UniProtKB/TrEMBL annotation, chain A:
Keywords: GTP-binding, Magnesium, Metal-binding, Nucleotide-binding. GTP binds at residues 24-31, 72, 136-139. It holds the Pfam family Arf. GO terms for biological process: cilium assembly; intracellular protein transport; protein localization to cilium; vesicle-mediated transport. The keyword Hydrolase does not apply. One of its GO terms (cellular component) is cytoplasm. GO terms for molecular function: GTP binding; GTPase activity; metal ion binding. SMART domains: ARF, RAB, SAR. The keyword GTP-binding applies. It comes from Daphnia pulex (Water flea). Mg(2+) binds at residues 31, 50. This is ADP-ribosylation factor-like protein 6. Belongs to the small GTPase superfamily. Arf family. InterPro entries: P-loop_NTPase, Small_GTP-bd, Small_GTPase_ARF, Small_GTPase_ARF/SAR.
UniProtKB/TrEMBL annotation, chain B:
Residues 7-117 form the Bardet-Biedl syndrome 1 N-terminal domain. GO terms for biological process: non-motile cilium assembly; protein localization to cilium. Residues 422-503 form the Bardet-Biedl syndrome 1 protein GAE domain. One of its GO terms (cellular component) is axoneme. Gene3D superfamilies: YVTN repeat-like/Quinoprotein amine dehydrogenase (2.130.10.10). This is Bardet-Biedl syndrome 1 N-terminal domain-containing protein.
Length: 192, 528
């Protein structure tokens, strides 16, 4: 069956589809990132804090992505793990200017990586689910330098998942395409 | 890599210098600009000038200098308007809105002559009604003149003025004023008083009075924690029942409740003088944090955009921010403590078997006693007087009945014998040994039989040679001498009662049933 699927995709009859999970603390710019990917840079509406989650679809590099834009508020963070089981990639958005909550972001990332569902995913495929970390709002003056973020998140210690850190600005789109390119490549490499 | 700690280190700064002359820093956290970001308010109390510092995240947003020595700070919300900051300084309330001065309210005159301007000692905000009706709050203002004012910040009218038994130094409240609210007031002479808004008129009722002075009272709406200077924290229910007691190793500087509704976390943070902050869950220590100097002020709540943030200020003026770890597993680190819990519970069950639970009657009684001890004492005295009277009446009835019965029986012989037996008692001797001479004489013309002479030492430590002498018969006009030696080894003196009774059932040896014919009392004075 799998061979048939890949045959169809090779024939471009069946499209490559993947689910990605967009998580991160509240006010980090997750919905803005999704909006940018969808509309290609045109800001159509004012984003409001997401309640629960939103599902959006967009295409990139011949891959149809179903994005689960999760709410980052602390009361909704327990919802994230419900979607770990069938996701092919994760975008973790960080507010680079939020010095106080960098510890919380780091802790949430750690919790996600250590979650049994994410570990189970790892055992079925060769490596873990690829995680793209967007250090958003990098244009702000008070933004923490990317090197410091890498150190604070302890990314060098994570060897279970392919991880890529990208400085971004969801309003202008800086860094978003490069990041998504990497994630799509990883998803295709691991699943198709 | 895996870290299962209760608190995440979010921020530590000594550059903000939250230090004040009087060393008192009060903290409050609220969403002051309605932009979803909660600011931190720190009141730096000085003798001449006080400062109010407002922090947005890690940055100082603004600093307001206050004209007088400010002592109290609280934030309040109003319908259709930005939340306000109320600062109590001197006899005025300074209200700030949108970080700008908004209003100055002088509290109404009080005092014995009704002209004195009372100084504010404490402030608190209480929700007026449930959130679906209104989000407005009322200001509770404690003044020097032992009163509590409830002020509506819409109109700045005192809705109510409640007299208190002392100067309120701390006001803690919970609930909704229109529905049900509980206000706890601490006075410096060491008492906590409770007021309930559903009992109109509101009045301060004594809640508890500890033996040592109160450091801080923390109230989370359900449990009241009272920290005292003898290194003890006691937990009480709102009804006044003591739940548990925690004894810590050093002096307590501050306590606060940490509540996270969606994580079902309820912890008590206790700051000690040795720089430790301990976290207790239901009286069990689950986590400790160590700092170089003692934490003098703590507050927990939503700060910035994050819930469950613990903000602390140390003696050196450092600001420390800790955030609750969402993934904290409670069962792991307290595995060692679990045995302690079990032991504690088994201890408590053991205790339960020994000490029965306080009955409702007992609790009610103690409550009433606390409310009005004078009245209770008077009631008790009245009750005991009535009991005495009742007992006396009963005894009178019984004794008069027996007299009636004997009168009904040998009607003629009783007065005869009572009249005809003559008793004379003489005490001879002066030392520790005495001789008691009793003279019994029958002055009637008939024989009197079955008499018993009974002796009893009622006072002092006297020893009698015999305590009972039976006389089979007493012939008319004869003198019967009975000689009994009495010893007074302690030389303290005493009293001997002599009773002569007529036996009605002469055959029975053991019991003496009869009536008194004659009696005498002999006093023995103490010998030198």
């Amino acid at each position: 069956m799998k061979f048939w699927d890949s045959f169809l995709t090779w024939l471009k009859i069946k499209k490559k589809e993947a689910n990605i999970l967009i998580v991160g603390l509240d006010n980090s710019g997750k919905s803005t990132v999704v909006q940018y990917f969808q509309s290609g840079g045109k800001r159509t509406e004012v984003t409001v804090p997401t309640i629960g989650f939103k599902v959006e679809k967009f295409q990139n590099a011949g891959l149809t992505l179903t994005a689960f834009d999760m709410s980052g508020q602390s009361k909704y963070r327990s919802l994230w793990e419900r979607y770990y089981s069938d996701c092919h990639g994760v975008i973790f958005v960080i507010d680079s200017s939020d010095t106080m909550r960098m510890a919380v972001a780091s802790n949430e990332l750690l919790l996600m990586i250590q979650h049994p569902e994410m570990v189970k995913n790892r055992s079925t495929t060769t490596t873990g689910v690829p995680i793209l970390i967007l250090a958003n709002k990098s244009d702000l003056q008070v933004a923490i330098p990317i090197g410091q973020i890498r150190a604070e998140l302890g990314l060098d210690e994570i060897n279970t998942h392919p991880i890529h850190l990208e400085a971004s600005n969801a309003l202008t789109g800086v860094g978003l395409h490069a990041g998504l390119e990497w994630l799509s490549d990883q998803i295709i490499k691991l699943n198709f | 890599m895996s870290k299962n700690q209760l608190w995440l280190d979010a921020f530590h700064s000594s550059s903000l210098n939250l230090k004040a002359e009087c060393g008192v820093v009060l903290l409050a956290v609220d969403d002051l600009a309605k932009d979803g970001t909660n600011r931190l308010l720190a009141l730096l109390v000085g003798y001449e000038l006080s400062y109010l510092k407002i922090l947005n995240g890690t940055d100082l947003q603004c600093e307001i200098s206050l004209p007088e020595m400010a002592v109290a700070l609280c934030t309040f919300s109003m319908d259709g308007s930005l939340p306000g900051i109320a600062v109590g300084a001197g006899s005025s309330l300074y209200i700030y809105k949108n970080f700008k001065p908004y209003y100055k309210y002088n509290i109404p005159n009080g005092g014995p002559t009704n002209t004195e301007q009372a100084e504010i000692t404490q402030l608190a905000a209480l929700s007026r009604s449930t959130p679906d009706v209104s989000s407005s709050s009322l200001l509770l203002v404690g003044t020097e003149h032992n009163s509590l004012l409830i002020i509506d910040p819409h109109t700045f009218n005192a809705i109510s003025r409640i007299e208190l038994p002392g100067v309120p130094t701390s006001i803690k409240c919970s609930g909704f004023y229109d529905v049900e609210a509980v206000i706890l007031i601490t006075t410096p002479d060491g008492g906590v008083y409770i007021l309930r808004s559903d009992q109109k008129p509101m009045e301060a009722k004594p809640f508890m009075s500890p033996r040592s002075s109160i450091v801080e009272v923390a109230f989370n709406g359900v449990t009241i924690a009272v920290a005292t200077s003898d290194r003890t924290i006691k937990h009480y229910t709102v009804q006044g029942q003591e739940l548990r007691k925690i004894v810590v190793d050093d002096f307590i500087l501050a306590i606060t409740w940490i509540e996270m509704a969606n994580q079902e976390i309820s912890l008590l943070a206790v700051s000690l003088a040795n720089g430790e902050v301990q976290f207790y869950r239901q009286g069990i220590l689950i986590e400790k944090l160590r700092f170089n100097t003692g934490i003098i002020s703590m507050t927990c709540g939503r700060f910035g955009r994050e819930d469950g943030v613990l903000v602390m200020v140390s003696k050196d003026g450092d600001l420390i921010v800790k955030i609750l770890n969402r993934g904290y597993k409670t069962n792991k680190p307290i595995s060692t403590d679990l045995n302690a819990t079990k032991a504690a519970t088994s201890n408590s069950t053991k205790k339960k078997s020994l000490w029965p639970a306080k009955t409702k009657l007992f609790v009610d009684q103690t409550m009433r006693e606390k409310e009005d001890p004078k009245k209770m004492y008077r009631q008790f005295q009245e009750g005991i007087c009535r009991l005495h009277l009742r007992a006396l009446q009963e005894w009178m009835n019984v004794s008069s009945n027996t007299v009636d019965k004997t009168d009904v029986g040998p009607l003629d012989s009783v007065p005869e014998e009572k009249r005809c037996v003559h008793l004379v008692a003489k005490l001879l001797g002066s030392g520790s040994r005495f001789m008691l001479h009793l003279l019994l004489q029958n002055i009637s013309e008939t024989v009197i039989d079955n008499l018993t002479v009974m002796l009893q030492a009622t006072e002092g430590k006297l020893s009698l040679e015999r305590s009972c002498v039976k006389l089979a018969m007493l012939l008319p006009n004869t003198q019967n001498w009975i000689k009994i030696s009495v010893r007074d080894p302690m030389s303290q003196g005493g009293q001997v009662i002599v009773m002569v009774t007529k036996d009605t059932e002469p055959d029975s040896e053991s019991t003496i049933r009869g009536f008194l014919v004659s009696s005498a009392k002999i006093y023995i004075s103490p010998t030198i």
